[in-house]
Design a protein that fits this description.
Elements (H helix, E strand, L loop, with lengths): L5 H30 L2 H6 L7 H11 L2 H29 L5
Helix pairs in contact: 1-4, 3-4
């Protein structure tokens, strides 16, 4: 109706509407997948360990100092992701009138 091409309409209208949902969904899936341990332990191979498997191995080997330091960094990283998700929700979410 406006005379613009499909690609231009998609870029100027649809993508700005999709951006908040895609960003929030990405952050949510990232936070949930970081906490997943059972499938990570079953699927890892030497040289491809994820952070949760490294934490598990440190705990099994009794390296509690390294485990504590890594755990604090892990929690701090998750805290930053949650703050980013809240920021996205405030910036792009539904506002109360």
């Amino acid at each position: 109706m406006s005379g613009a091409s499909w690609a231009l309409n998609f870029r100027r209208i649809v993508l700005p509407l999709l951006k908040p949902g895609l960003l929030a969904g990405f952050i949510y899936v990232l936070i949930v997948s970081i906490r997943e341990l059972s499938s990570s332990i079953l699927l890892y191979s030497p040289g491809t360990e994820v952070l949760s498997v490294v934490i598990w191995e440190l705990w099994e080997n009794g390296q509690y100092v390294e485990l504590s330091a890594l755990g604090v960094m892990f929690i701090f990283g998750l805290f930053l992701l949650v703050l980013a998700a809240q920021w996205v929700g405030r910036r792009f979410g539904i506002r109360e009138l």
